Amino acid sequence: MARELETLLGQLQLAGNLEDIQNLIVDLRNYFGVDHAVYHWVSSDGEQYGCGTYPTEWVQHYVDHDYIRIDPVVLGCFQRFHPVDWKRLDWSSKPARHLRQEAQRFGIGNQGLSVPIRGPNGQFALFTLSHHCDDAEWSVLMDMHQRDLIVIAHYFNQKALEIAAGRAPEPTKPLSPREIDALTYLAMGYGRGQVADLLSISEHTLRVYIESARFKLGAANTTHAVARALSEGLIIVGAAARGSLGDWPGKRQTAD
User: Taking the domain 3-166, which CATH number applies?
Assistant: First the structure.
């Protein structure tokens, strides 16, 4: 293993916070000579953390469009244990092709390799390199670095788990009654249009409530917001909840 890489791994072992590993992933991107390096994890309860060199505009665009649901990279890595070359994934669906076009528009690159990592208690993570180049250049890069990338991915995941375990959870901001209503109905399986009708509000207003709740919960998307609200006991889904909520739609007209 190259001396420079050994140095980077030593620095990773000494990292004490998320800012340290963000700085290190930039150094790793430069070491591999690619456009981007990214680490992304999802815990069993839906909590997500990521660091890397993707443009912040792309990260927000990805989250806003909930691309994680249809991303062939994520779906493909869930089904595999070995490194996944993006070219070998199924990009045939219209949503997948659109996602790929959008990613390239934001400068993510036409080539990529993702290492799936499975940790304790259902944790799942990816370590990814992406780049703009032709197939021949990418093949040379991967021949040179794929083995090192697998080692780094697991070191990186171990350090992220150590740091996450030592972090005190941030207090959750209280949700308003309407935010609780919206997330509860979504957790019960209703679509957004149905929820808006049940609460006698427009879909635009519903979207405002959902985005506000998502921000308060520190959630990456709506599904994550519902999962966090359930896990923290902020919403309860069951026969009792259905009964109490059933009395509200159309009767409670004041905004919270």
Answer: 3.30.450.80
